[in-house]
């Protein structure tokens, strides 16, 4: 059963020394931190904080919670810089616990103890992955400090873990995305990791190759292909020289069957995973074969997210028809791909997506007991023939296209929520089938599918989950489901906003008002999108994800629904009105307002 466990207040302490610091303690100044060398970062990483950086007890604990950030093997050494020599008894597990602190550290009356309320988000592994706990946990950590005249503050007692706050994660790490082929070898699937921000650029290829060889994140394993068993690097990866990156892998990296296609997939996977490094030519040797050289941008087509455009078309449902919204600075004819006046009627919700060859449409039509889902497809530029999806209960939500193959329609499928349950449907119409998963309970209120067509996020019973879609003989299945812990409660809506980020709507835990946040795919990082939009819950939201080749970290303009109203999320919320529609202006029908917004995917 998918449930959130709220842990009771915990005061887990480990004795690090006596009540004071012995004279002559040899606590060492950590200094300004190691030289960053030639960093691939953007120069925005924070300076390393030391024990002597503050005399404020709350700030001292805040700094302590960032000390584990950095090189994995020396994290304990950095943490002990805040302690005396008696800290040799401090022997925590190697993997830092990533925590989100709630409010500011609280001092006790005598000020020798500091309490920190926290949410446990997971553990950060050497592979750059934050692995969520089996069940999200909240609690309280307690720290004991002492002050030595002339030497400042020291940590006396602390929880028996390496702790890393989300602030430390944000300050000292950079997100990196590696890629694995989906199980059908039709596209690459992103796998987001954390790289220490001051790693010299010469070391990055070795680290990233190690991540690839180590395999995908556990939650992705059912949807992607790992590198073949026995794959390893041969020797060290030399520094980039003359605009070339040379990599030698063992012969096992490519199977003997269909070897040429496998080599081509491998080099595309490497080019995408290493693309942030400054090289033009990839020199790849497999075993004792001749070196092959790759350059250019043809590898980009292997990632479906590369097709995302900078200025997508936007649509709403107005007066029971799908209508296009006006786009600033460019012509916006009021047309909808795949639809015409005959099939664009009596609509309440819709999803339309295009590939290079086809357009796919899914429309919820009718109302009440007569509500139906009708879907169809057509060659690009033509009108789709819509067929009914049978077997759905009432309460049909917003349909989502999940699998839309390039060049053909076989296997095209989508997802829709009906009666609080998740259902799958085929582009050719026919019977809907319920999607289930082990332990799955609770009402589903939102579903979103990433551009790769495999990763999904769901809101179930007010909680947020991530999972993957797998393709089997009878359709789509859901696996690898993990609960995430966003900084919201009662999550009602979610959408992918980039390869590694989601936009979520729910109730702010402090103000108890409705907020919309951008969060990382593991919920460890966050950024306010709309911190307060009132008290009306968001029933649906949509963003258009950022192209991974763009400089935009998150998706384009946000649109969302509250009740029957549709809104555009800019710096503030702006309601979409009839004047926002493309095409000839007409007298708005009384009571008709734009609703159910969506982007042309």
Radius of gyration: 26 Å
Main β-sheet, in a few words?
7 strands, mixed
Strand content: 35-45%
- Low-pLDDT stretches are 1-44
Termini Cα gap: 34 Å
Number of strands: 37
Helix content: under 10%
Bulk shape: globular
**Average pLDDT reading:** 88
Structural class of the secondary structure composition? mainly beta
- Please, how many helices? 5
Pfam family, one: Gmad1
Organism: Actinoplanes hulinensis
Region (Disordered): 25-47, 579-601
Protein name: Lipoprotein LpqB C-terminal domain-containing protein
Polypeptide structure, described:
This protein is mainly β and 601 residues long. Helix content is 8%, strand content 37%. The protein has 5 helices and 37 strands. The strands form 9 sheets. Strands 1, 2, 3, 4, 5, 6 and 7 form a 7-stranded mixed β-sheet that branches. A 5-stranded mixed β-sheet has the order 16-17-18-19-23, with no helix packed on it. A 4-stranded antiparallel β-sheet has the order 20-21-22-24, with no helix packed on it. Strand 8 (173-182) and strand 9 (188-196) form a beta hairpin. The two termini are 34 Å apart.
Using brief descriptors, characterize the structure shown.
about 35% strand; disordered N terminus; 5-stranded mixed β-sheet; mainly beta; about 600 residues; 37 strands; 7-stranded mixed β-sheet
Topology diagram in text:
Layout: E1 14-15, H1 57-64, H2 75-80, E2 97-107, E3 113-124, E4 130-131, E5 137-148, E6 152-158, E7 163-165, H3 166-172, E8 173-182, E9 188-196, H4 204-214, E10 224-225, E11 244-249, H5 259-273, E12 281-286, E13 292-294, E14 314-318, E15 321-324, E16 347-354, E17 358-365, E18 372-379, E19 387-390, E20 400-403, E21 413-418, E22 421-426, E23 430-431, E24 433-434, E25 444-449, E26 455-460, E27 463-472, E28 475-484, E29 488-496, E30 501-508, E31 514-520, E32 526-530, E33 540-542, E34 558-562, E35 565-569, E36 573-575, E37 595-599
Parallel strand pairs: 2-7, 11-12, 19-23
Antiparallel strand pairs: 1-6, 2-3, 3-4, 3-5, 5-6, 8-9, 8-10, 12-13, 14-15, 14-37, 16-17, 17-18, 18-19, 20-21, 21-22, 22-24, 25-26, 26-27, 27-28, 29-30, 30-31, 31-32, 33-34, 34-35, 35-36
């Amino acid at each position: 059963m998918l449930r959130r466990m709220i842990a009771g207040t915990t005061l887990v302490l480990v004795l690090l020394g006596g009540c004071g610091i012995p004279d002559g303690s040899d606590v060492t100044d950590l200094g300004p931190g190691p030289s960053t060398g030639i960093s691939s970062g953007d120069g925005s990483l924070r300076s390393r904080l030391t024990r002597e950086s503050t005399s404020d007890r709350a700030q001292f604990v805040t700094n302590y919670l960032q000390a584990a950030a950095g090189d994995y093997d020396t994290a304990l050494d950095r943490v002990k810089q805040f302690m005396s020599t008696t800290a040799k008894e401090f022997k925590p597990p190697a993997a830092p616990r990533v925590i989100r602190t709630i409010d500011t550290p609280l001092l006790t009356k005598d000020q020798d103890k500091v309490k920190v309320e926290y949410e446990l988000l997971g553990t950060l592994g050497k592979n750059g992955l934050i692995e969520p706990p089996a069940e999200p946990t909240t609690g309280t950590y307690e720290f004991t400090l002492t002050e030595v005249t002339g030497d400042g503050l020291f940590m006396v007692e602390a929880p028996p873990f390496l702790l890393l706050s989300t602030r430390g994660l944000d300050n000292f790490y950079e997100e990196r995305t590696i890629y694995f082929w989906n199980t059908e070898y039709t596209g690459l699937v992103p796998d987001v990791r954390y790289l220490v921000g001051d790693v010299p650029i010469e070391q990055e290829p070795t680290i990233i190759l190690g991540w690839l060889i180590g395999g995908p994140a556990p939650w992705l394993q059912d949807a992607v292909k790992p590198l073949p068993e026995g794959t390893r690097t041969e020797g060290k990866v030399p520094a980039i020289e003359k605009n070339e990156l040379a990599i030698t892998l063992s012969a096992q990296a490519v199977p003997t069957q269909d070897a040429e296609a496998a080599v081509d997939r491998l080099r595309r996977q490497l080019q995408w995973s290493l693309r942030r490094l400054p090289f033009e030519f990839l020199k790849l040797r497999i075993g004792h074969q001749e070196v092959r050289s790759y350059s250019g941008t043809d590898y980009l087509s292997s990632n479906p997210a590369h097709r995302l455009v900078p200025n997508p078309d936007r649509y709403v449902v107005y007066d029971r028809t799908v209508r296009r919204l006006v786009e600033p600075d460019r012509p916006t004819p009021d047309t909808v791909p795949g639809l015409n006046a005959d099939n664009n009627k009596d609509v309440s919700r819709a999803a339309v997506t295009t590939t290079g060859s086809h357009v796919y449409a899914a429309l919820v039509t009718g109302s009440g007991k007569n509500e139906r889902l009708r879907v169809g497809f057509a060659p690009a530029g033509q009108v789709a023939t819509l067929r009914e999806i049978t077997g759905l209960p009432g309460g049909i939500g917003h349909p989502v296209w999940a699998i839309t193959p390039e060049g053909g329609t076989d296997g095209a499928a989508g997802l829709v929520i009906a009666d609080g349950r998740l259902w799958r449907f085929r582009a050719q119409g026919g019977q809907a089938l319920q999607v289930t998963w082990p332990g799955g309970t609770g009402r589903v209120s939102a579903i979103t599918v990433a551009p790769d067509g495999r990763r999904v996020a769901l809101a179930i019973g007010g909680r947020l989950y991530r999972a993957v879609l797998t393709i089997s003989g009878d359709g789509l299945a859901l696996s690898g489901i993990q609960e995430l812990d966003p900084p919201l409660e009662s999550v009602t809506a979610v959408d992918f906003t980039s390869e590694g980020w989601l936009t979520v709507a729910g109730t702010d835990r402090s103000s108890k008002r409705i907020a919309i946040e951008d969060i990382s795919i593991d919920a460890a990082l966050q950024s306010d999108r709309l911190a307060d939009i009132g008290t009306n819950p968001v029933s649906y939201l949509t963003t258009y994800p950022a192209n991974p080749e763009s400089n935009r970290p998150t998706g384009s303009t946000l649109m969302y629904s509250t009740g029957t109203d549709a809104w555009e999320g800019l710096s503030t919320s702006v309601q979409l009105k009839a004047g926002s529609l493309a095409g000839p202006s007409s007298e708005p029908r009384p009571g008709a307002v734009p609703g159910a917004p969506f982007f042309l995917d």
